[in-house]
TrEMBL record:
InterPro entries: Colicin_D_immunity_dom (IPR015287), Colicin_D_sf (IPR036471). It holds the Pfam family Colicin_immun. Gene3D superfamilies: Colicin D. One of its GO terms (biological process) is bacteriocin immunity. Residues 7-88 form the Colicin D immunity protein domain. This is Colicin D immunity protein domain-containing protein. It comes from Haloferax elongans ATCC BAA-1513. One of its GO terms (molecular function) is toxic substance binding.
Amino acid sequence: MNDKDIIQKYSKLIQRFIQNETTASEFSDEYLDEFIEEDGEFSEETYEILQNMFAEAEAYCENPELRGERDIGEAELRNVATETATKLEQRLKDTDC
């Protein structure tokens, strides 16, 4: 997989969460699994965007009573996912140039 294919794959995954097609827990688990198993080649710029989303997906904790200082809830995860989707969209435009 090249940079463009990887961006499209993660964009679809993130969009499903943003559009409420998956729960925050499902998204977090799926994103973590996908990123850990990623074997495609992508640019440093794309990696930075995806790595940031990975860190936030890893910080997600469904139960507010169990959240530590660095954990986040669904609203925060959704905000980061929306920002990440925007960044990936821009990266996709940049790779098409």
